[in-house]
Amino acid sequence: MIGSLIDFFITSALILFGIALLLTLFRLIKGPTTADRVVAFDTASAILMSMVGMLSIVFGTFSFLDSILLIAIISFVSTVSISRFIEGGHVFNANNKRNR
Question: Mind telling me which residue stretches traverse the membrane in this protein (predicted)?
Fold first, then answer.
């Protein structure tokens, strides 16, 4: 009884994550501004991490947890770099006073 209930909730969660990912990818493609696309990319990566975590539960393995960490790191670095580029057009600050 409990096993079938857990399977139902895991399956429904994966379906809802899939629908949310499709809606987010639509916003990522159609987004009117670059800032909207950055937020959609960050949301899509969070949904993808959740889906990979649910698949890790389904398959009963810890192997996927490394890929969740990798997705999170790549998402964070890309979000910060694109946001810095939108802000001032520079990803790396070459005129840093600490370099002198």
Answer: 6-26, 38-62, 68-86
pLDDT grade, residue 85 (50/70/90)? Answer: confident
DSSP code of residue 12? H
For residue 92, which phi and psi values (nearest 5 degrees)?
-110, 135
Q: Do 44 and 91 form a contact (C-beta atoms < 8 A)?
A: no
pLDDT at residue 93, rounded to an integer: 66
Q: Does pLDDT of 80 surpass 90?
A: no
Cα 88 from chain centroid (whole Å): 24
Per-residue tokens: 39: 């937020």
CB-based contacts of 24, cutoff 8 Å, min separation 6: 40, 43, 44, 47
DSSP secondary structure letters along 82-94 = HHHHHHHS-SS-T
Q: Which two tokens stand for residue 71?
A: 């997705």
